[in-house]
Prior knowledge:
Order of helices and strands: HHEHEHEEHEHHHE
Strand content: 15-25%
Number of domains: 1
Helix content: 25-40%
Shape: globular
Number of helices: 8
Low-confidence stretches: 212-226
Distance between the termini: 34 Å
Strand order of the largest sheet: 3-2-1-4-5-6
CATH topology: Rossmann fold
Structural class: alpha/beta
Amino acid sequence: MEKVEGVYRNNALSDYFNQVVAGVVQLHIEKLLANDPQRRIRILEIGAGTGGTTSIVLPALQPWREHIAEYCYTDISKAFLMYARKTYGSTNPFLTYQLWNIEHPPESQGLALGSYDIVIAANVLHATGKIRRTMSHVKAVLRRGGILVMNEISDRSLFSHLTFGLLKGWWLYEDPELRIPGTPALYPKAGPDCWARPGFAMPPFRWSAPTASASRSSSRKTMARSVWRR
């Protein structure tokens, strides 16, 4: 587990974008509570893995912890769920743990449809066969008006290709017309077509650029941040 943690946390680029994700989550929580101060908020993270994003989002939730009904930590591996329970469970009693392969419908794996206000997906959706199908599964778990906070690679990267490119999951995609050639990374220009078909609206913002110091610290060039409404 420790051998891969450094890719997703404790480096300038990953931490920067995880903080962007956390900031978007905070803003949406504030909006929800402004409309309904008694609201109980449910959050789900897809492919949470080693918790690189979780480790930054959870502290950001603390001012509203009494309003968090659930933070559902999902992954395809039970080992990651056990790790999350051990690492984060004792200080975050609203955490739940669920196996979910995003390639398959959520209801077939025990997830309730239309239940979540916020879904977080950090560098996971590209590792699926058909992105439109994947997005339809994401949409299925969101409440009406819920948002998807998506953090994705959006460029070719030698670092990613020489590391994750050795894994089977890097080559799962079956829709190359939507991907940057030679990688599973999604074409930014393909976004509207990918998201509109499953029923997502255009986001309030599309891309965030890292600081100059973050850009210099990693061979990964750009990562996308999008918020989509159901």
